[in-house]
Amino acid sequence: MFTSPATLPATQRAWVSARKGFPPSRSLELRTDWPVLKTLKPGQVTVKIQAAALNPLAWKLMRYLPNWIIKRPWAVENDFAGIVVSADSTSRFKVGDEVYGGVDPAIGFSTKQGALQEYVTLPAKDLAKRPPNISPFEAAGVTVTATTALQVLNDTKLEEGQTIFINGGSTSVGAWTIQLAKLRGAKVVVTCSKKNEDYVRSLGADEVIDYTAVGPLHTYLTKSPPSTKFNVVLDAAGLWDSSLYSQSAAYLQPNGIFITVGPTPHEFTWGAVPQLFAWLALLGLPRFLTRVQAKGKNIIGAVRAEDMEFLRRLLEEGKIRPTVDSVYEFEDAVKAFDRIVTARARGKVVVNVSLSQSSRVPST
Ligand SMILES: NC(=O)c1ccc[n+]([C@@H]2O[C@H](COP(=O)([O-])OP(=O)(O)OC[C@H]3O[C@@H](n4cnc5c(N)ncnc54)[C@H](OP(=O)(O)O)[C@@H]3O)[C@@H](O)[C@H]2O)c1
């Protein structure tokens, strides 16, 4: 039943970014002749992908990344779940293992591989065994956002009894951060729109602010500051306006930390330039010059083997859980991208790469 390298096909179906463009339908093409990388380096495995999940990064790259930086076409996306079909003897996986993981962008670009294709070859460190209580559709969306959330908590050293404020509690990064922060014994205050309040509370949020009803968030928090200032402020929504950090004196401890998942403007127009310089100054200059006491940081998530294993255990023990927003068939991947660009998904937008219809999980 399981495949050895010799029996892997030479080519596969893959969704690739063929040109710079937005919406994603202008950039994407479905190729049927995409090469399957069959040669394993030490420690590598080949995975037959069952399901892939989307991250906002992919459409941002399609929209903004010029060809002179990374030559198109390249296969898109990073997160997936699948079955090992070929494994180097030094890797810790064997043929038939059910896994999930993420294609490191550096490896993806250099080998022209992504998650929206049928087979991917990558280092075993970027994989974990899929716990039996998590379906491939659920597991597909874990790696990028859960490892980023864990890194936020590790980098900020959030401790029991401290408070984290998360702007964007219903984002995937926010949802993992809520769950992991509660496991550390921290208090969690989040923003989300009213419709997502029950969802974020079900994940463990202690207090919820409807960001659509309070006006500018920094103004609201300054006028109604928490009784004890936050130890950590995480912007999981990637606000382009830097005020949540620059105006944080009233609600963030002076020795606290502000962390952003990466500010993104709605459009890179000339109007976005002043904020670009504001961010560069706020995050790059010494704090005696910026006059913001709390530290500021832009997180760039990286997949680490120990983080993968830590998260796998929590998933298996049922201490954290993934959320699936919706599942699309492979041919309908463009519709999946249309969903994620709305920034209204609650949980992961997943694409079925090779599973039968009957394996679908109901949308939450
Ligand atoms: N730095 C890194 O390593 C890294 C890793 C992963 C992701 N990211 C970035 O992190 C951001 C979030 O990614 P994701 O995959 O977690 O997002 P996502 O799941 O696609 O986010 C969708 C959610 O965002 C909420 N939302 C949209 N605008 C908001 C706002 N202004 N304030 C609060 N909530 C808002 C929506 O809730 P409502 O419908 O209630 O508004 C929706 O539930 C993206 O910018 C992504 O590129 C960075």
TrEMBL record:
Membrane-crossing segments per the record: none
Domain Enoyl reductase (ER): 25-351
Record GO terms (molecular function): oxidoreductase activity
Record-linked Pfam families: ADH_N, ADH_zinc_N_2
Protein's name in the database: Enoyl reductase (ER) domain-containing protein
Organism expressing this protein natively: Ephemerocybe angulata
